[in-house]
Amino acid sequence: MSSLSENPTDLDRTDPSGEVFIRAEAYRNWGRWGEDDVLGTLNFIDEAKRVQAARLVTEGVSVSLAQAFDEDGPQRGWKKRNNPVHTMTGTGLDHERDPHANPHSIGGADDVIMMPLQCSTQWDGLGHIFDRGLAYNGRPAGAVVTTRGDLVTGIEHAASVIVSRGVLLDMGRHLRPETGELEDGYAISAEDLNDCIDAQGSSSQVGRGDILLVRTGQLARVRRNGWGEYAGGPAPGLSLSTAGWLHRSEIAAIATDTWGFEVRPNEFDESFQPLHQIVIPNMGLTVGEMWDFEELGRVCAAKGRYEFLLSAPPLPITGAVGSPINPIALL
């Protein structure tokens, strides 16, 4: 019998549909911001929240939270997700060969990049995942995302929105202080999240409009040992049982340093990314993946401070269901 228990051990591992659907119904935000809403939980970020976040910048320390976008990235071709292909269309060599080709011998370089929008540090937009034929806010999936893109909740709508207070919960350091890294397959529970907040102190309190960053330490491990199955393989991550916690907290968005945000293998005998199915199309939660929290984790641990101004706008790619980003934490 499915329940809303927040203990991962209470999940019925033989009934993914039951466990997903009961939470989808319980934590659904359809209509909360009106039938025309396209932002979901990003609506929790308001002017007052941004003013609060801006006041957190006291030292001018800036940390990029992006992985590199290059051919040495983690992708292995699943769902045609390849690493970026970067090509120069003009080079210094071209200029040297004919330095006088242009007026007053000016030269220049140009380049082009081809890549899936979810090949490295990125946001999942609200049109990325569907649930039983429906997209966020109860719209028919086929009326939202077509061959022309996401016609309703395209990522461009969030272009000016995602600037807020960021909070780092360093689950790796908290749960595994000896290594700073959670083992693959570890399911982070609501209790784990609360315990980390208590341990890290008052700057880790999570509330309405915040962007929650969860460091597992997996990225540090794969950088040391090689990518392996980082893209889609086993990983630490959030348990399905945290859905209620995520809904209650009224966070605007969440991001992790893993490929898929939730624990892998997933917590059921036969399933694929069940927490995505709850939080994106039902809760309207924007999800970030493959962020780099290594430098931020060191800075926060040294300062004993885990809150900062976070600027992480997507590229305004019309109709996209995701976007590459270079998030910046300012302390």
TrEMBL record:
Record key words, sorted: Hydrolase
EC number assigned by the record: 3.5.-.-
Any single Pfam family the record assigns to this protein: Cyclase
Source species, domain of life: Bacteria
A GO molecular-function annotation: hydrolase activity
InterPro entries assigned to the protein according to its UniProt record, in alphabetical order: KFase/CYL, KFase_sf
Record protein name field: Cyclase family protein
Organism: Microbacterium terregens
